[in-house]
Structures are given as C-alpha cells and as structure tokens.
Design brief:
This protein has 98 residues and is mostly helical. The protein is built from three helices and no strands. 27% of the residues are buried.
C-alpha cells in the first residue's frame, strides 16, 4: 500500500483499491462517523470541498487531494470502505480537518 499520495506526473491505477488501504488495515476510529476526519470526508462527499486543509510537511497537497478525490469518485468498492479510507489517508497527509 502506497502511503504517500500518487505523484501528479504518474498515472493512477485503474483499480482504485490499489491506491487505498484494505478495510481491515484502517484503524477502528476512522470507521466511526463521529471521527473529525470522517465528518470532513462526509461533508466533502455530500457538499463539496469548501476549504483545503493544510498539507503536512513533505506532502504535496494537490497530489493528496487528487488521490483522495479518486477514491471519493470510485465505484470500485463499497461506500463505507471509501469513507474510512479517505478519512484515514487525509489524517496522514493533512494537519487538521478544520
């Protein structure tokens, strides 16, 4: 599993599950809708991304959002898996969901 965002200059895999952690590998707290990053993911999914969170040091924010957007728009896996994968990866790549 690639933990860093896919670089802009590289083509992302056709199968979205190749760019997200397995459901079993995602920590339990990210599977709860009350987690701050899960709330952020839900807000983005249903209402669009209003503001861009600040990327952590060493992370390209554009690459990270491209990667997360690919997962959000995918039909390759169950919605619940996408929700917690986006929340978990966002927590690794961005400072705060605020």
């Amino acid at each position: 599993m690639k933990i860093t965002p896919w670089p802009i200059d590289e083509e992302m895999p056709r199968n979205t599950t190749a760019c997200m952690p397995s459901y079993e590998d995602i920590p339990k707290e990210f599977k709860s809708v009350s987690h701050p990053w899960a709330k952020w993911q839900s807000e983005w999914f249903f209402n669009g991304l209003k503001t861009t969170p600040t990327a952590k040091d060493g992370i390209d924010g554009k690459e990270a959002l491209r990667h997360l957007s690919r997962i959000q728009r995918s039909f390759d896996t169950k919605h619940e898996h996408k929700q917690c994968a986006v929340a978990y990866l966002a927590s690794m790549w961005f400072e705060s969901p605020k």
